[in-house]
Amino acid sequence: MLYNFYFNEEVFKTATLNIVLIEPQIPQNTGNIVRTCAATGCRLHLVKPFGFKIDDRKLKRAGLDYWKYLDITMYESLEEFLKLNVVENMHFFTTKAQNVYSDVEYSDGAYLVFGREDAGLPEELLKDNPKNCVRFPMGKGIRSLNMVIIIILVNAMAYFVQNISIMLKVMLEMIFLRS
Fold first, then answer.
1. Residue 60 is part of which domain span?
2. How far apart are CA 107 and CA 89, in angstroms?
3. Phi first, then psi: what are they for 169, rounded to 5°?
4. Is 141 part of any domain?
5. pLDDT tens figures, 29-83
6. What is the CA radius of gyration of the chain?
7. In b/e form, how buried is each residue of 133-166, taking b as 16+ CB within 10 angstroms?
8. Which of 163, 165, 153, 171 has its CA nearest to residue 10?
9. How many angstroms separate the CA atoms of 118 and 116, rounded?
10. What is the CATH number of the domain that holds 22?
C-alpha cells in the first residue's frame, strides 16, 4: 500500500514535450504517435505535406478515439513551423548526428523533431543546426528505428530525469520505514 501512495501520478511532474512530424508519410505511424501523445500529454505538431489524407481509415484506426485528447497544431510547411517556434529548444532526430539522445537534457517544452519515414529531415536543416541533432544508437547494419519507439523512450527518459529526486526520496523513505 505504501508503494501506491508514493507512486501516485499526481505526485510526479511530467515534462511537456512537443513532438514534431515533418511531412509524415505512413498513416499508421502518425496514428500511433497520436495515441502516444494523447496518453503522455505531449503536444503534436504536424507539418505538411502529408503522405496520406487526415481522414485516412488507417490513421484513424491507429489513433483510435484519442484525437479528442490531443493538443495538435498543423503547419503548411517546414518554413512556417520554423518561423513560429524556437529552434534553440529543438532536437532534430537523425541517424547522421554525433550527439546521442541520452546525452541531451530535454527541458519542459522541448521539441523532438522527426523527418519523413523514407527520407529523414532536410540536409540543410541538419547542417545549419549540428548541435541540435541527436541520434539513437543502433546495431551495425540497422538503418533506423521506428519513430514511435524513440518518442516513447525519450518521453520516458525525460519523465525519469525530471522525477529522479522524488524517486530517490521515496526509495530512502521506504528503506528507513522498513528498518
1. 13-162
2. 8
3. -60, -45
4. yes
5. 898 898 888 888 889 999 999 998 877 577 667 666 788 888 899 999 999 999 9
6. 18
7. bbbbeeeeeeeeeebbebbbebbeebbeebbeee
8. 163
9. 5
10. 3.40.1280.10
